[in-house]
Amino acid sequence: MDAPATGPLSDPDGPSPDAARRAVQDRYLRALRARWRTASLASGWRFPSDWGLPEVDAVCAAVVKHGGADGALPALAGLGRARAASGAGLEETLTDLAALHAVLADPDSADGFVAPDVDATPARLLRVTAVAWADVALDHLTRAEVRDPLTGLPTGSYLRTRLAELYRLAERDDAQVADDHTLVVVTMNLAGSAGWSRLTGMILAADALRVAFDGGESLAVLGPSTVAAVATRDAGVATRAVRLRRELAERLAVDAQLREVGKPRINVVRLPGDHVAACELLDTLSRN
């Protein structure tokens, strides 16, 4: 990243009015995002790492641009859809919206410590967000997306189907799935990331997973910050996990703007005894 000009080459008159205005807006946007996140987590958001979707930044930008949530209705609809797609429930999504409204209603509150109240949130904001959330949730009931558009990996629905096949085979052979297969999970630390770096982090994680597990393993994206592979449990799985860590580290080191992406966690997880428990495990991993 280029460093700002300093010394004798700097503008003696200081930054232009446009630059100064943009700087003020950027500071306000970052402060709004931080206070909203604090309020949402304090009101019960369960998994901090999956709160900061790119659509959160779009809502903050729209609020700053239009001077309030009323001008951010399209962005709120986008956030509602994104929350549903990431697995957040409607109650959690609307409580998060109430946290934003409470922060905007009390701009003098320190560090976002406010009391979100869904019942006090304007009906138009609730309606737009809830309808958008429901559109995606209902769509998920009628059809399961096969491939995640960001990473290009199959979705968690595919991995559940693949595991069902493995468990049926194990039951037929009176064996345990965990004897021959294991789950390799990559969890990206994106809590401090936003926008471009968040999206790029997940794309790079998926690419590294494909390179490390290129022998027909079942790969999938489980959530906003998690990808995984069902791999054969043999002597080579540890080697492939080490290669995965190296491949991912090399990709994240390429761009200085990706330094805000925290160190990813790579775990080899034992598969449970039955398919129902395996699906519950995937649900838990998708929200970590």
Question: What is this entry, summarized?
Answer:
This protein is α+β, with helices and mostly antiparallel strands and 288 residues long.
Layout of helices and strands, plus pairs?
Layout: H1 17-42, H2 54-66, H3 73-86, H4 90-105, H5 123-142, H6 156-172, H7 177-180, E1 181-189, H8 196-212, E2 218-223, E3 226-232, H9 237-252, E4 262-269, H10 275-286
Antiparallel strand pairs: 1-3, 1-4, 2-3
Task: Write up what this structure looks like.
Residues 7-18 have a biased composition (Low complexity). The protein has 288 residues and is an alpha+beta fold. It folds into 2 domains: 7-142; 156-286, Reverse transcriptase/Diguanylate cyclase domain (Alpha-Beta Plaits, 2-Layer Sandwich). It contains 10 helices and 4 strands, in the order H-H-H-H-H-H-H-E-H-E-E-H-E-H. It has helices spanning 17-42, 54-66, 73-86, 90-105, 123-142, 156-172, 177-180, 196-212, 237-252, 275-286; strands at 181-189, 218-223, 226-232, 262-269. It is globular and about 65 Å long. The protein starts with 16 loop residues before the first helix and ends with a helix. Mean pLDDT is 85; it is low at 1-10.
User: What general outline do the C-alpha atoms trace?
Assistant: globular
Number of domains: 2
Tell me the Rg in angstroms.
Answer: 22 Å
Mean pLDDT: 85
How far apart, in Å, are the first and last alpha carbons? 31 Å
Order of helices and strands: HHHHHHHEHEEHEH
Number of helices: 10
Q: Largest sheet, order of strands side by side?
A: 2-3-1-4
Largest sheet: 4 strands, antiparallel
Number of strands: 4
| Helical content (DSSP H or I, runs of 4+) | 40-55%
Low-confidence stretches: 1-10
Taken as a percent bin, the fraction of beta residues is 5-15%
* Structural class by helix and strand composition: alpha+beta
Protein name: GGDEF domain-containing protein
Organism: Prauserella cavernicola
